[in-house]
Design a protein that fits this description.
By secondary structure, the protein is an all-alpha fold. It has helices spanning 7-47, 57-68, 87-97, 109-120, 131-140, 147-163, 166-176, 186-194, 203-211, 226-241, 257-260, 272-277; strands at 76-77, 178-180, 183-184. It has a three-stranded mixed sheet, with helices on one face. Strand 2 (178-180) and strand 3 (183-184) form a beta hairpin. The protein is globular and about 70 Å long.
Length: 278
């Protein structure tokens, strides 16, 4: 007698193949999503290598934040070219925010290690974000602190350091950074605080703007506190030590040999009297 085929046994391979097909679809979707992110992020960085940045996610976030509180002042933001931003302001933000800006490739590992050590010791929370990292965060990412955003910040910092010059990073940074409540960029800040263009800022005015950058919504360049004045004087002193000018070409061919090579330990020569006695 002929035996009837087992229907349950026949259906089981279909279920397994169905699960495999779903797994393949999900895997393919994730691969395409990751590939798409890499392509669009690189394209975005390449576009902003030349094109002005019209706005940032932080500008949008602040606008909705104000609306929820019942007030929505207009965003003050005017893009100006690199040549129309005072060299004093460029040097001031380096002295204030990132003194190794011309040396590093996006990340100041010494500052990161120092900040991590101080934070572990329970001291005041200290940031170590470079101008490049702040630019990447302001232009491409949302406001907040979490590991996903920090990871993306690393990626975009790598990209802008790869495709942009230091001058371009500085141009985008000084056109996009928050410099007051509803004030973004050097031109808007110069008009709001000193009623002049960013190109005409004096070194004292530039240092005052740079002094409020750690918290531009709390500190004011229009009515500076004693703390802000103290930071201004510190920045001015640092600007003098830098020679009053930011030389973008200084480290383009790498660090000078004196800075690359570790210092050799030299034996101290004995004083002249001791040498004669010997």
């Amino acid at each position: 007698m002929a035996t009837k085929p087992n229907k349950k046994a026949a259906k089981s391979p279909k279920k397994s193949t169905g699960k495999k097909s779903w797994f393949k679809k999900i895997t393919r979707f994730l691969l395409y999503a990751v590939l798409g992110f890499f392509i669009f992020s690189i394209l975005g960085v390449l576009v902003y290598k030349w094109a002005p940045v019209p706005g940032t996610p932080l500008m949008i976030f602040r606008k909705f934040e104000k609306r929820e509180k019942g007030s929505a002042p207009p965003v003050q933001h005017t893009w100006v070219s690199f040549e129309k931003i005072s060299p004093h302001l460029q040097l001031a933000v380096v002295c204030s925010e990132d003194q190794n800006y011309l040396k590093h490739s996006g990340f100041d590992w010494g500052a990161i290690e120092k900040a991590q050590k101080e934070n572990e010791e329970g001291k005041r929370l200290r940031g170590a974000s470079t101008i490049s990292q702040q630019t990447a965060k302001n232009v491409f990412l949302w406001h907040g602190r979490n590991y996903i955003r920090k990871g993306l910040e690393v990626w975009f910092t790598f990209l802008i350091e790869l495709f942009w010059s230091k001058e371009r990073i500085m141009e985008v940074y000084l056109n996009s950074i928050e410099m007051g409540d509803g004030i973004y960029g050097a031109e808007a800040a110069s008009k709001a605080y000193f009623n002049k263009s960013a190109a005409n800022l004096t070194k004292e005015e530039a240092a005052l703007i740079a002094a409020i950058l750690p918290n531009p919504r709390r500190f004011s360049a229009k009515n500076p506190s004693s703390y802000t004045r103290g930071r201004q004087q510190f920045i001015l002193n640092q600007m003098r030590l830098w020679g009053g000018k930011l030389n973008y070409d200084k480290y383009k061919d790498g660090l000078p040999e004196k800075e690359n090579k570790p210092k050799k330990r030299t034996k101290k020569k004995p004083p002249l009297r001791m040498a004669l006695n010997k």
